[in-house]
Hints:
This protein is an all-beta fold. The chain is built from no helices and five strands. It has a five-stranded antiparallel sheet, with no helix packed on it. A hairpin with a 4-residue loop joins strand 2 (30-33) and strand 3. It is globular, with a radius of gyration of 19 Å. The protein starts with 20 loop residues before the first strand and ends in a 20-residue tail after the last strand.
Amino acid sequence: MCGHHPPCPTADSADREAARLAVHRPEQGWSLLCNGVLLFDDTGELLPDGQIIAPHRPMTTLVAPQLREGALC
């Protein structure tokens, strides 16, 4: 499917998201990669074989604000 040199990662590779964009539709929230992967803005994916990859956004860490010295509790 890919004619790039070096070739883009295949759809079944762990680094499949590194493939080049073939079509980009930011107004619709998706991009088609050179390897046939449909990548959505929420980080979900649809592979060429129909397999669905759930969104995998990085977890954020919530940190409680620190009390300032001398602040009333």
